[in-house]
Amino acid sequence: MKHELPKLPYGFADLEPYIDARTMEIHYTKHHQTYTDKFNAALDIHPELYEKSVEELLTHLDAVPQDIRTAVRNHGGGYYNHSLFWQYMSPHPSAEPGNDLHTALTHDFGSFDAFKDAFYKTATNHFGSGWAWLVMSLDKKLSIIETQNQDNPISQEQKPLLGIDIWEHAYYLKYQQKRADYIDAWWHTIDWNHVTENYHRAETH
Ligand SMILES: [Fe+2]
C-alpha cells in the first residue's frame, strides 16, 4: 500500500504567531506531499518494499536496493521526518517535560537549561539544510545530534525524541535568514507531553 500524507493534527494558522499559516500550508501541502510522492515513486520500482514500514527501511538503508537507496534515504526520510515534526508541535503545548524526561535531561546535560542551550546551539550552527534532534542511543543515553538533508537518526542507531526542521523552507517566509528567531519561536510550540511519550516509548523498547 502506498504511503499517504498523514493528516495534520491542527490547522495551518493554529501555530501562529510562531509559525505563520502560509509557511505551514506550503510546508505541508507542497514539501511534505512531494516527499511522499517521490518516496512512493521510488518504491514503485520495488513494490515488495511497500510491505516494510518507513522506519524499517530507514533503519536498514543498506538492505534497500541500490538503485532506489538514495531516493528512499532522501524522500523516505523527508516523508518520515515531517510526519514526526508535525507531532512535536501543538497549538496548546504542554510547556514542560514530564518528570522522568526532566530527570533524564538533567542527568545527561547537567540541567534543563543546559540541554536547551545545547539544542539551540546545534540547531543554530548547523550548516546548510538539515535537522537538529534530541535522541536516545541504544544504551539509553540522551544526546543532541544534527543530520544533513533528510537523514533521520534511526539510520544511525539513534531514536528521535524531538527534532526541528532547519531547512529554509521551514522559516524563510516569516523569518528570512534569521534562523535563530525561528528557533526561539518554534520553542513555544513544542508539545512536551508528546516528547515525554516518545521518551517513555524509546526507553521501554
Ligand atoms: Fe521541511
List the helices and strands and how they pair.
Elements: H1 21-45, H2 54-59, H3 66-88, H4 99-109, H5 112-125, E1 130-137, E2 142-148, E3 158-165, H6 172-175, H7 179-187, H8 192-204
Antiparallel strand pairs: 1-2, 1-3
Bound molecules: fe (ii) ion (FE2).
Mean pLDDT: 97
Distance between the termini: 26 Å
Please name the CATH topology of the largest domain: minor pseudopilin epsh fold
- What share of the residues lie within helices? 40-55%
Number of helices: 8
Shape: globular
Report the CATH architecture of the largest domain: 3-Layer(bab) Sandwich
Secondary-structure-based class equals mainly alpha
Instruction: Encode the helix/strand succession as letters.
Output: HHHHHEEEHHH
Strand proportion: 5-15%
